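Rotation project, supervised by the postdoc (A.L.). Task for the rotation student: set up a whole-complex structure prediction and record inputs and outputs verbatim in this book. Inputs entered:
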Amino acid sequence: MIRRFVIGTPLDTEAVLHKPEVDQGVLPYFTIEGTTLGMKLAKEDVVYGLGENVRGINKRGWIYESNCTDQPHHHENTRSLYGAHNFFIVKGQEHCFGLFVDTPGRVIFDIGYNRVDDMKVTLENEDYELYLLEEDTPEAIVHAFRELIGQSYVPPKWAFGFGQSRWSYFTAEEVREVARGYRENQIPLDMIYLDIDYMERYKDFTIDREAFPDFEELVAEMKAQGIHLIPIIDGGVKVEEGYDVYEEGVKHHYFCKDVDGDDFTVGVWPGKCHFPDMLNEEAGRWFGRKYKVLMDMGIEGFWNDMNEPAIFYSEKRLKKVFEKVGDFKDINLDLKNFNAFQDLVGNVSNNPEDYKSFYHNYKGQKIRHDKVHNLFGYYMTRSAQEAFEELEPEKRVLLFSRSSYIGMHRYGGIWMGDNKSWWSHLLMNLKMLPSLNMCGFMYTGADVGGFLEDTTEDLLLRWMALGIFMPLFRDHSALNTRRQEAYVVEDKAAVRGIISLRYRLLPYIYSEFMKATLKNTMYARPLGFVWPEDPEAVETEDQLMIGESIMIAPVYEQNKSGRTVYLPEEMKLLRFDGAVLAEEQVLAAGRHYIKVGMNEVVIFVRKGHILPLAQPAQCVAEMDWQDLTLVHFAEEGTSYELYDDDGISRRVSLEGSLRTLTV
Amino acid sequence: MIRRFVIGTPLDTEAVLHKPEVDQGVLPYFTIEGTTLGMKLAKEDVVYGLGENVRGINKRGWIYESNCTDQPHHHENTRSLYGAHNFFIVKGQEHCFGLFVDTPGRVIFDIGYNRVDDMKVTLENEDYELYLLEEDTPEAIVHAFRELIGQSYVPPKWAFGFGQSRWSYFTAEEVREVARGYRENQIPLDMIYLDIDYMERYKDFTIDREAFPDFEELVAEMKAQGIHLIPIIDGGVKVEEGYDVYEEGVKHHYFCKDVDGDDFTVGVWPGKCHFPDMLNEEAGRWFGRKYKVLMDMGIEGFWNDMNEPAIFYSEKRLKKVFEKVGDFKDINLDLKNFNAFQDLVGNVSNNPEDYKSFYHNYKGQKIRHDKVHNLFGYYMTRSAQEAFEELEPEKRVLLFSRSSYIGMHRYGGIWMGDNKSWWSHLLMNLKMLPSLNMCGFMYTGADVGGFLEDTTEDLLLRWMALGIFMPLFRDHSALNTRRQEAYVVEDKAAVRGIISLRYRLLPYIYSEFMKATLKNTMYARPLGFVWPEDPEAVETEDQLMIGESIMIAPVYEQNKSGRTVYLPEEMKLLRFDGAVLAEEQVLAAGRHYIKVGMNEVVIFVRKGHILPLAQPAQCVAEMDWQDLTLVHFAEEGTSYELYDDDGISRRVSLEGSLRTLTV
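Outputs recorded:
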């Protein structure tokens, strides 16, 4: 049952498509004081959800803030990441419900942080909507919620291949080298991502023609090899006379304004920038149609970045810093003064005050940015996808974003944002996936190997062995870090084998992804969703169910040749030596210590289930989706419903796309 | 066998007491190129050691730098912490050796970081000594090494009680409140630490008489309650006319000099400071004797801080920053310029260039600081302890330091430095303990609950349940974080029980600590030391052997009601509900999933071994060391050798201090 409560006169985020009638009753479970919802947590209550956040699948014991933030330096105590996903589920012995807190401003979720048994949800905006969902199980709640918010975005089938990224491949020749690196080493690849340096002075919708003189040819040449180039688009537009996007934006008042009505100026990659007013329908439409510049060059996919929006500095704050810095010149900088001095410069980026100093024109209404902060990336991505629907009415265009809000899941995927080459970020990647699925984000994954800092070969290989189960599977690394393309790995056989296994798994991964997307269910489930009555399964957060047939239990620690795996029921272990199935073994329910070599991937098949495997290929286009091997832990006559389609048409439906495979 | 190699004419760090003859042969195992020692690692080689560092007990897969650094923001990719411990062990199938790289400058240990199978040790100084130790087992190598470097520091017995710290208890009344909080709640306590605010304007060896008007009385009053006050001493001396320490230091040239021969000026807590030249014997003796000011007020213990030495800024660098900052005022701060601007101010602290811009007077020789950087905290602590030996020739004085180098272990303990309220730091605490033992540091532990950032009650309780096994057991938290004294915990019964168990364990902990210290063996051992032929034991890094009788396996993850424990052999599980032994159960070798409540501590007793337990008490002074309960997993007639002494005399010896307890 879904109940909708409206408090005040909230702005419609359009997260929910078909709104139920407003419930005039009292919100159960919670007490409300001001804009804080409070609830006592029982010892055994588990709290799921909150999408892109740190810590466990069970969110208890920490305080999270929905406040889209460019935060690559995140760790276990970080409160806000790139997205804002205000949906959570409380599963206890006495109750099982979900709550979606629909408000575009900041929300604080204290889930037993200040007091172990207290949950407090505090909203910054006074006007908001609440959706309360009551069902028997967390899985049923997720289903009901996903029905409410509408079908998730479907990318082209080729976007399920493997992608290579780096900040940056600086020239066309560098891009060609990457393609050669993969093809010559027979490591599959479907995408190469172009980070900010393909642009001229970081200007959206431009090409640096010195570095990429033959950009259109390069796109075509790569496509002929089965490789798509995916350029980045940033949320800020460079201030530069003569640059059409800048000039049009100024002329038509498409940029966010400061309190005086002037275009608001911030520093981002290019230096001084304006933010397109993504919440202004006309400005959004204008910005979305700009992607055509690149589509006309043959581009079929994009990633939207820096759209929290990230602010290196605001022009006004920077001016103040320069005014004030002299005050510290001739005084004794003791602890207090030194801290003040460091803060002056150190707090210049993403400063909360700056988010209160610019305005949107939303349906003719002037709205201060912080009130709608969490919608910026959502509306940027929505504008783009709505433009794509006009420009490419038949064909899926790949699109994913860094910042997001629930509702954006209908228009694009997300990647899990800038991360680091940390083992703890590998594990966070695993835990984030089901939480994102709960909130509608299906096409997602983390930067394998880690974006910032230098990766090590063992970390990269172990992360690959998890990444092959992520719908969005790409390797990405930052400026001044060591190279981490698969072909630079010493143990090429291992990395080739693991990525090849991804391609062998693709019919299953795509099938499970599409069925979950079309049925509004989950692609990746916590064990607690599948075995909610098994307390040990509920606490197992380093394993996942991927689709209906398989469980994964990756190794996520260094210098480990194996790990303990919990089987809630009898399962069949499949050991892959790279892409080759090397062992099948039925294991009893319980805990098992399983060895996993650096070249290996171990998968557990549920009883009564089938895992279809394709032959390896160098890219999705070359795959044979017909000639499948059915590995299984099932009786004769058991069947699997394989979803398949042409992989590119926007019209997707279970009808006509299911094929029954029987053992 | 120990072999000593001398390259060039190194400065004597005095880490090694009795040096063997110089070996004229060639260093085996390694190739030497310039100042880099290189070695191929076999797949199964395990590398132990390196003392205070991040990551695993097996140090493979990362790059570490011995470069004492004030780094509270450390995480899995941090290269340098507060100490420099250049001793490691390589245990393979073909070889088992240890190497001590004795040099006071920076050393980089690449243990399979750049290439999985390469180890490279790179020294900044060209003159150095190497000690190669070859024995059959890692444990034998540690023993030989510890014999070489001399007996570790022994603190008073009361220092094995529990201590409460905070930055800061600002007044005498606040200190009394803490004592009351413990005593009224019947939670044991032996020490309260005084952080920097007990001083007048952060001046070493002064008391803020406004906040602590009756300091001497306070000390006596606390002592009457069995509580010792432990003040902090910082590595920098405030520049202030009329302040005797400053004036004497200037007059006698006891401070480090800059290149022009002027006293080198840096910013630390008080603002402008000079560093006492700890390497200058006369200056060190002068500084060490200054502690007498506080000892005369009844103080019996100290902690030395900021002695890496930490530099907030150097006067010269700060001047340059103010000169250059204007350059950024009127240019477009794009990515590159903005980064340069941020770096200008952001890199002002602990800047490597500053460590190259001041000088020591070491035995009449002028030595640039960076060449001997890792000795500063060592010599500061040594100077203090040498003064204590004069001032209190009979009585042990508590002393521990943040920065350290091997050799300092003879003069004081260390705490593991400023950490955070992170679950990952709890686990790091566990892994660091045996590595520190290998390098001679016995009296050590981490700030329980975490120093920086807000702790949560579950983290604090789980960390307490580990902390009770650390020789140095204190709760410490930083300015502007929430209170984390044990008596503010909601579940007082749980925290009281766990800390009380510490006191029940004290006869065992003190006995094992003292025997290990006097025999040059380890108090805490990795499982791989005890069962080197069991590969699963070798890989188990989240359990420890504490002394000869028990193994611990703490819960270090949130929202977990238990964990998997690996038993290399049959053991007896002891379950404590707080201080009360609630369950004894013999478990077979292998993996077990063990439930552990938030109020519980689970200990595993080795077969043939005994765990003596005392009755709980409110402080060490009140304990009865005679009335012991012998819990055991042993046949009748098995005995345990209990070490005990008066707990305060400097003269310690096994002889006359052992008592046989038989079951």
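Student's summary: DSSP finds 15 helices and 40 strands in chain A.
Supervisor addendum: The first helix of chain A runs from residue 138 to 149.
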